[in-house]
Every structure is written in structure tokens, then in C-alpha cells.
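Please fill in the sequence for the structure shown.

STRUCTURE ENCODING:
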């Protein structure tokens, strides 16, 4: 596979296709193969590895600075070094069609800046900068990941990083394992739900690569063994959303393989993965109690009240929403707190922030 899929049609534009020996129903296509520069590839791997460790406090870092952001700056710098409008050999990739929707959202976000209270304008600029960074990252990463070797390396790097973090949690290593309320366990000060979703994504990646049959022998056994500490760590976080995401992701990525030659292996992996997670969940009294509270009592860690308050806010300003930043404080105030709150739902967040128009 190649990093830049530039197609060149080869044909005779001056003569007859039949005379030139090419059928009118056939187009000969050539690929201009240009590999991803090694430095860019390594920096991408480094950024991927540091993502699960973003909340790590190294002492000398203050504010919003983190090892993930430092590695991200290094990656961006190396990328611009090789891919830029001034380069004759490599240029920036075209913007994917799906990213234009993201640009539209950012446009609505900027147009709503006049509705931001002066005391919250700093928060507005900080989040705008974050959105622009995400936009640029999605833009260049979507092109780099067309290289199948690079994409596979990125998935493996992320999985090994999560497995390393999970092993530290399971073994109770200092700094890695931090017990929170209700028997839930976090690591490196990371949010429990975020950490659980890190592990859920890593589980799906490992199972998917195993089903693809990309690796064999010892490498395949090693890859499959990563699922155990990752699954245990996911259960330890007590995140119901992470488990739900894992179940849905397993169905999306593995069940379609039943039509292929590896269909039976995919089905077995899906069943074993789901059964293992359910077994560990049932064996954890704290986690099982959280699910029982959700099912029998409708308790969702105050999300049921947050959703109701968010829907009420949307009904008050349905067309253009409440604008940036302020909805979080309004939601927190309606919940009896002076601290900003989150909608815990992407669709509700968009509707309360930019409304139906946005």
C-alpha cells in the first residue's frame, strides 16, 4: 500500500483506443508509490503510544501540557518538514469530504463567539485551538493511514501502550493503580470512563487483527494474550459505557467476517471476548451492582438528570443553541453546582451548543 494514492490514467488521448490496443471498457491505472518518510512514521508511532498516557504527571509539566501533546507537536513539526506547499516532491493531501462537515461545525462555533460572556472568552479560545488541532490531525492522519503497513503499526502501537497501562493497573504498581470510590480503579489520574474506553478500543483492535490473520505463530499468540490484562483493566474502571462500546464494536468489526474464510475464527473470537468480559463483570460485585442499579432503578450516575436538563435547554433555544462554553456552566448550575457539566452525549452537546441550524 502507499501513503499517497494518486491515480494516473494511461491511455492514448490522440488516437483510437482500439488502434492502441486498449479496450474502450478498460482503463489502465498506475499508482505513483511514495512511501511515508521514516521520521514521520516514527513520530506517528510515538504520538500513538503516548495517547493512553496523556494524564501522566511528570512533575515539570504544568497546565494543559502533557507527553501526548509534546509528541503531537513533534509529529506535526516532522510532517510539515516533509509535506508542505513549498515542497516539490510532496504536498499536503486533499481535504477528505467528511472533514468538510467538521469545518462547518467549527465555522458555526466561530460565528457564535459574540454570544460568549467576556469572562469565558479565554475558555472559548482554548477550545477553538483544540478543535483546529484535531481538524489538522484528522486531515493528515486520514492520508497517512492509507498506507496499510503504517495503519497496522499504529493499531499495534496503541494496543501495546494500552496493554502496558493495563498490566500496571492489574499488578497494582505505584502510580498505575489508583482506587477510586465504589471499588473502581483508575491509573495515572485518568478519568475512569476515558480510561475504560481506551481499553475497549484496544480490545477491539487486538481481536480484529487476530481475526484478520495478519500475524501467525508466536506473534499471533502474543497478540491474543494482550486481551486478558486489557479486559481486566476495563472491568476495573467500572465504566458501563466502555463495556457497551466494546460489545457494539465487537459486533461491528468481527461479526461481518462470517462471510469470509476466517469467519469461524472471527465468531469464536467474538464469543470468547464477550463471554470473558461478561464473566469478569459478573464476578465483580461493585461493577455488577452498578449494572443492576441502571437496570432496576434507572440510575445512570446522574446522567438521567443531565439528559433531562439538556433537553430542556435545547427546547428553550432550539434553532441556534446556547453558544460555546456557556451551556456547560448553565447545565452545572441547573444541577446545583457552580462547576461546568458535560452532556455525556455527542448529539445533545451539538444541539445545545449550536442548535438545529448548526
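FILLED IN BY: designer on duty
SEQUENCE:
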Amino acid at each position: 500500500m502507499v501513503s499517497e494514492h494518486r491515480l494516473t490514467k494511461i491511455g492514448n488521448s490522440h488516437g483510437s483506443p482500439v488502434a492502441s490496443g486498449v479496450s474502450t471498457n478498460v482503463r489502465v491505472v498506475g499508482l505513483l508509490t511514495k512511501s511515508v518518510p521514516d521520521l514521520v512514521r516514527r513520530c506517528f508511532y510515538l504520538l500513538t503510544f503516548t495517547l493512553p498516557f496523556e494524564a501522566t504527571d511528570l512533575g515539570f509539566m504544568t497546565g494543559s501540557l502533557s507527553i501526548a501533546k509534546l509528541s503531537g507537536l513533534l509529529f506535526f513539526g516532522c510532517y510539515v518538514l516533509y509535506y508542505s506547499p513549498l515542497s516539490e516532491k510532496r504536498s499536503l493531501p486533499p481535504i477528505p469530504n467528511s472533514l468538510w462537515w467538521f469545518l462547518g461545525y467549527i465555522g458555526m462555533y466561530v460565528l457564535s463567539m459574540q454570544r460568549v460572556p467576556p469572562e469565558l472568552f479565554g475558555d472559548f479560545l482554548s477550545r477553538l485551538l483544540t478543535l483546529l488541532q484535531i481538524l489538522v490531525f484528522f486531515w493528515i492522519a486520514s492520508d497517512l493511514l492509507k498506507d496499510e503497513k503504517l495503519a497496522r503499526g499504529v493499531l499495534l502501537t496503541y494496543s501495546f501502550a494500552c496493554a502496558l497501562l493495563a498490566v500496571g493497573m492489574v499488578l497494582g504498581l505505584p502510580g498505575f493503580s489508583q482506587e477510586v470510590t465504589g471499588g473502581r480503579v483508575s491509573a495515572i489520574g485518568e478519568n475512569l470512563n476515558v480510561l475504560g474506553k481506551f481499553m475497549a478500543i484496544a480490545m477491539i483492535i487486538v481481536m480484529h487483527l487476530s481475526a484478520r490473520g495478519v500475524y501467525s505463530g508466536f506473534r499471533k499468540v502474543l497478540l491474543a494474550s494482550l486481551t486478558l490484562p486489557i479486559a481486566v483493566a476495563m472491568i476495573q474502571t467500572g465504566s458501563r459505557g466502555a463495556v457497551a462500546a466494546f460489545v457494539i464494536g465487537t459486533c461491528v468489526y468481527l461479526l461481518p467476517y462470517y462471510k469470509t474464510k476466517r469467519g469461524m475464527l472471527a465468531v469464536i473470537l467474538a464469543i470468547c471476548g464477550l463471554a470473558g468480559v461478561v464473566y469478569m463483570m459478573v464476578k465483580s460485585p461493585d461493577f455488577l451492582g452498578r449494572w443492576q442499579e441502571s437496570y432496576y432503578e434507572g440510575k445512570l450516575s446522574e446522567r438521567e438528570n443531565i439528559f433531562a436538563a439538556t433537553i430542556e435547554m435545547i427546547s428553550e433555544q432550539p434553532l441556534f443553541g446556547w453558544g460555546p462554553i456557556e451551556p456547560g456552566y448553565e447545565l452545572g448550575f441547573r444541577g446545583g453546582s457552580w462547576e461546568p457539566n458535560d452532556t455525556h452525549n455527542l448529539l445533545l452537546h451539538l444541539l445545545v451548543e449550536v442548535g438545529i441550524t448548526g
